[in-house]
């Protein structure tokens, strides 16, 4: 869990370096580019989540794990070509709509296509609870991304992500050499497609919830205010990044408990206690030292970012709680009613569009949307 936390911290360090290097308008553009890169993260997280649940059922059977690895890669080869091609075509509309150079979107399409494969190996490592191996492969990715991206800025931001992902995948395969050298065995994957749908949709909504405001800000707030908002959003991102290691550890543990009919609620309560503690500490620091944090991140005191940073941080804390609740429910197979999560994403977009007259109202809209989503996450996804 510590290594995964360091990985997330290095990713956040990258955003700080870019915020201090680029003018506000350019930093806003970079954040919009990364919002589209996170489309690849949607596939990565959802695929990894599915793999973890099925690996948890066969955690000590290397032959079956090898079969899962082979079958998953064959399936993803077709999907990656289709999704990458679709994004490439859609980029013809995305480029003028969000004011992003088309060539950068072409590079992004390669990342999205390649992102289908990395989570297969990582999912096996996570399902085996080999967190040291998982974390070290992710650290390699983060370190390379920072180095390449900082040197080349825009092109490095995309190229660094692609190159670091490929090398990280290679390291993951080394860690899986025992599994890959074993003889394949038949494995029962009944229900994997039906389970994949709610996992993908929930992951889609969670990642878009933290990114759609950035995407829309350029058009709704204007380039300068969008840059200020990007600074505030980067501060709030600290919280969401900070709780992710908890989710990574919780999922395989409760998935195994679910398969063995062991009560999983105690581990969920422990995880929620940790997440609440992280949120409380982060919110306290941000509330009392907002101006100092803005200065550290941007290299200058941007007063317009202070109030939005506090509002977005509170909203992100609610989103963090929602993510832990939803991933826990997915880990134990509670997927009924998953389609309703889309309604909350649509509601967020509507609220952002209505309350976009200024950056503070826009931030309030984000906060309200996340409070409502948190309430929904408690109610939705039943047996």
Record keyword descriptors for this entry.
globular; 383 residues; 15 helices
Count of individual domains:
2
What is the count of helical runs?
Answer: 15
Summarize the amount of helix as a percent range.
over 70%
Mean pLDDT equals: 81
Radius of gyration equals: 20 Å
Q: From N to C, what is the helix and strand string?
A: HHHHHHHHHHHHHHH
Write down the overall geometry. Answer: globular
In short:
With 383 residues, the protein is an all-alpha fold. It has helices at 2-21, 24-57, 62-98, 102-114, 118-127, 131-175, 177-180, 192-209, 212-220, 223-259, 265-288, 290-298, 306-331, 341-354, 359-379.
Task: List the topology elements.
Blueprint: H1 2-21, H2 24-57, H3 62-98, H4 102-114, H5 118-127, H6 131-175, H7 177-180, H8 192-209, H9 212-220, H10 223-259, H11 265-288, H12 290-298, H13 306-331, H14 341-354, H15 359-379
Helix pairs in contact: 1-6, 1-10, 2-4, 2-5, 2-8, 2-9, 2-10, 3-4, 4-6, 5-6, 8-13, 8-14, 9-10, 9-14, 10-11, 10-12, 10-13, 11-13, 13-15, 14-15
Would you write up a description of this structure?
The two termini are 29 Å apart. Helix 2 crosses helix 5 and helix 2 packs parallel to helix 10 (223-259). The protein has helices at residues 2-21, 24-57, 62-98, 102-114, 118-127, 131-175, 177-180, 192-209, 212-220, 223-259, 265-288, 290-298, 306-331, 341-354, 359-379. The protein contains 15 helices and no strands. The chain has 2 domains: 1-189, no CATH class; 193-383, no CATH class.
């Amino acid at each position: 869990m510590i290594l995964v936390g360091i990985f997330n911290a290095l990713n956040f360090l990258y955003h700080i370096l870019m915020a201090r290097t680029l003018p506000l308008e350019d930093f806003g553009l970079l954040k919009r580019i990364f919002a589209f890169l996170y489309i690849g993260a949607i596939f990565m997280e959802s695929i990894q989540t599915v793999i973890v649940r099925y690996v948890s059922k066969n955690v000590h059977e290397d032959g079956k794990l090898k079969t899962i690895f082979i079958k998953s890669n064959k399936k993803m080869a077709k999907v990656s070509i289709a999704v990458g091609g679709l994004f490439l075509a859609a980029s013809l509309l995305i480029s003028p709509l969000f004011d992003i150079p088309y060539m950068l979107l072409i590079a992004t399409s390669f990342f999205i296509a390649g992102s289908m494969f990395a989570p297969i190996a990582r999912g096996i490592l996570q399902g085996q609870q080999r967190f040291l191996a998982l974390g070290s492969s992710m650290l390699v990715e983060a370190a390379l991304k920072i180095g390449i991206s900082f040197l080349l800025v825009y092109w490095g931001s995309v190229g660094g992500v692609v190159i670091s992902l490929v090398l990280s995948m290679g390291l993951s395969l080394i860690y899986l050499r025992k599994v890959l050298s074993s003889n394949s065995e038949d494995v029962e994957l009944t229900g994997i497609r039906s389970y994949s749908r709610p996992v993908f949709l929930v992951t889609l909504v969670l990642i878009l919830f933290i990114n759609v405001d950035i995407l829309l800000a350029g058009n709704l707030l204007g380039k300068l205010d969008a840059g200020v908002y990007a600074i505030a959003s980067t501060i709030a991102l600290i919280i969401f990044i900070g709780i992710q290691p908890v989710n990574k550890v919780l999922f395989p543990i409760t998935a195994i408990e679910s398969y063995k009919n062991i009560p999983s609620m105690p581990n969920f309560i422990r995880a929620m206690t940790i997440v609440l503690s992280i949120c409380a500490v982060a919110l306290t620091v941000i509330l009392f030292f907002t101006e100092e944090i803005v200065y550290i991140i941007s290299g200058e005191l941007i007063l317009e970012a202070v109030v939005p940073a506090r509002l977005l941080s509170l909203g992100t804390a609610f989103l963090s709680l929602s993510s832990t609740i939803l991933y826990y429910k997915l880990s134990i197979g509670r997927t009924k009613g998953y389609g309703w999560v889309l309604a909350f994403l649509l509601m967020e977009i509507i609220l952002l569009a209505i309350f976009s007259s200024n950056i503070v109202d826009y931030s309030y809209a984000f906060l309200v949307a996340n409070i409502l989503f948190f309430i929904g996450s408690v109610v939705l996804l039943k047996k």
